[in-house]
Specification:
The structure is a single chain. The protein has 337 residues and is an alpha/beta fold. It has two domains: 36-118 and 222-335, Periplasmic binding protein-like II (D-Maltodextrin-Binding Protein, domain 2, 3-Layer(aba) Sandwich); 121-217, D-Maltodextrin-Binding Protein, domain 2 (3-Layer(aba) Sandwich), CATH 3.40.190. The protein contains 15 helices and 14 strands. The strands form four sheets. It has a five-stranded mixed β-sheet. Strands 10-9-11-8-12 form a five-stranded mixed β-sheet, with helices on both faces. The radius of gyration is 22 Å and the shape is globular. It starts with 11 loop residues before the first strand and ends with a helix. 45% of the residues are buried.
Length: 337
């Protein structure tokens, strides 16, 4: 049975007498009985397979109970993975924050196990005819979901390709994607980069326009992945295999039942049919991983971010981009299914 949360309740009852009045004090403690706690990003159409799997009962078919835990962005997912009291065992989230934290945080002990999507993000700007290319972003205020996440990385590529850098624009970190659209409407930002469906939602009523889809910047770039904390992977490999089997099945169902998948997207993401059609067309749903593209991702990330180095003390010494991927990414689980 798919849980959202199963509660074990411990009740401690104490009686306190104050001026002859008995007061009952009850303390409630929640404990998850799920087989696996899975993190995912709030309102992210990239992760449609996770919604499909729950909607179609695929976790029940595998005999596992999950606890689904939402996060605002991939950085928040990694912060949970790194915590001594981590709240998740596996997660759907962006490859960029997974990389950034693996390079910069010693406690980022995760392994990437499957792909989720390619492409699927976009830079939305106000519907101003003077903004036509990346060069026109100079001096503008652009919102990102967080620094060092997938969309932040794509924005850095857009700027670099346009002869600009972050020094040439004003950055606003806005973790709630809906707030980006509100800010664009109020004129407090000039644009934002986000994941679908928040991109298409920002174009409603001619408020904003697509300046670049992420596929315009890098066709079929890796985006979201599934990763597991290494401790969970080592001690619960059979559950990990079942989660990945479910993911593969759900992804194949999306590709084979596109219109039915669109209905689920409309319901879960609060989209019109036209919005769902455009947003889903911007996303490539996958489960396999292109390791060469992932290695290229590492090369680009190192090139564009001074905080990331293959000499990081948090990874084994002597790695290049390709051998780092061989160490950090394990495709054997998904390939065996």
């Amino acid at each position: 049975m798919v849980s959202t949360k199963t509660k074990a309740v411990l009740i401690i009852f104490g009686v306190i007498f104050v001026s002859g009045i008995g007061i009952g004090v009850i303390f409630l403690f929640d404990k998850s009985n799920a087989d696996v706690r899975i993190g995912y990003l709030k309102g992210d159409l990239h992760q449609l397979a996770f919604y499909v799997a729950q909607e179609n009962g695929y976790y029940e078919d595998e005999g596992i109970e999950i606890e689904a835990i939402t996060f605002a962005n991939g950085g928040a997912v990694m912060t949970s993975f790194e915590s001594m009291t981590r709240s998740i065992d596996m997660a759907y989230f962006g490859f960029a924050p997974a990389l950034f934290h693996r390079f910069t945080v010693a406690a980022a002990n995760i392994t990437v196990l499957a792909g989720v999507n390619v492409n699927g993000s976009a830079l939305i700007v106000k519907n101003d005819p003077s903004i036509l290319t990346g060069a026109d972003l100079k001096g503008l205020k652009i919102a990102v979901p967080s620094r060092y996440n997938m969309q932040d990385f794509i924005l850095s590529m857009i700027l670099n390709n346009s002869g600009l850098s972050y020094d040439d624009i004003f950055i606003s970190e806005t973790t709630d994607q809906s707030d980006m659209i509100i800010a664009l409407d109020k004129g407090s930002i000039d644009g934002y980069i986000s994941w679908e469906p928040h991109c298409i939602k920002g174009t409603a009523n001619d408020l904003g326009k697509y300046l670049y889809k992420s596929s315009d910047v890098w066709a079929n770039h890796p985006c979201c992945v599934i990763a597991s904390h290494n401790e969970f992977l080592e001690s619960n490999s059979s559950i990990v295999n079942k989660v990945l089997k479910v993911h593969k099945r759900a992804t194949e169902w999306i590709l084979d039942n596109w219109e039915d998948a669109k209905v689920i997207a409309m319901e879960k993401m609060f989209l019109t049919k036209d919005q769902a059609t455009i947003a889903m067309a911007n996303i490539g749903y996958v489960y396999d991983m292109d390791l060469a593209q992932m290695a290229l991702f590492v090369e680009k990330l190192v090139e564009l971010n001074d905080l990331i180095s293959l000499d990081s003390p948090n990874i084994p010494p002597g790695l290049n981009a390709s051998s780092f991927i061989d160490w950090f990414v394990d495709p054997s689980y998904i390939e065996a299914l």
